[in-house]
Amino acid sequence: EVSTDDPETAFCTLANREELNPEEDSIHHCLYQFTCNETLTETNKLLCDVCTQRHCGPKNNLSERKYVYTNAKKQMLISLAPPVLTLHLKRFQQAGFNLQKVNRHIKFPEVIDLAPFCTAKCKNVAEGNTKVLYSLYGVVEHSGTMRSGHYTAYVKMRAMNNHLSDLVLRGQSQASKTEPVKGQWFHISDTHVQPVSVSKVLSSQAYLLFYERLL
């Protein structure tokens, strides 16, 4: 079922997407592609109940009803900004009859703004806000192939985020700082833990990204 309270704002976002120029092989480009406006035509047309009733009448026998399909537009947007944002990158592709791992580096920032990917009426964003900011605090990296490999993690040790606690426990959103949450990054591989720089983290081949909401 597809519905909207206001068709005029159905494809509007909190921040202007037209101002985005996402760099290829970046997490912004991935999100932009995933939330692009699509046109559904030909075999992808949408079954329209309103058009069907208009054409056949509401009292027609269901077995005799001829369903009407119509061209439509579709867009995937975020309607509720989560306290914790988890991004899972698809790191495999079809190669003939086999699956092949995608090893190229995908750029990701310390602080990301989800506003260009949120609906204009995002449920837990205060009216007038045009930013939905998140700070990176965890990365999972995979090395190896589709058949075997090793998972390691980068984790930021930081002070408790009271703003995040309020969001998780009570669903309340209050103004918070807009800079990355300060803390020390660590690389964890089985029983080995060592401190690393943020540049080392941002150069990793991310498989999973974890962000906490700032604003």
From TrEMBL:
PANTHER family to which the protein is assigned, alphabetical: UBIQUITIN CARBOXYL-TERMINAL HYDROLASE (PTHR24006)
GO biological process, one term: protein deubiquitination
Annotated SUPFAM superfamilies: Cysteine proteinases (SSF54001)
Molecular functions (GO terms): cysteine-type deubiquitinase activity
Limits of the USP domain: 1-214
Domain of life: Eukaryota
Entry GO terms, CC: cytosol; nucleus
Keywords: Hydrolase
Entries under InterPro entries matching the protein: Papain-like_cys_pep_sf, Peptidase_C19, Peptidase_C19_UCH, USP, USP_CS
Keyword presence, Cell inner membrane: no
Name of this protein: UBP16 hydrolase
Pfam families assigned to the protein according to its UniProt record, in alphabetical order: UCH
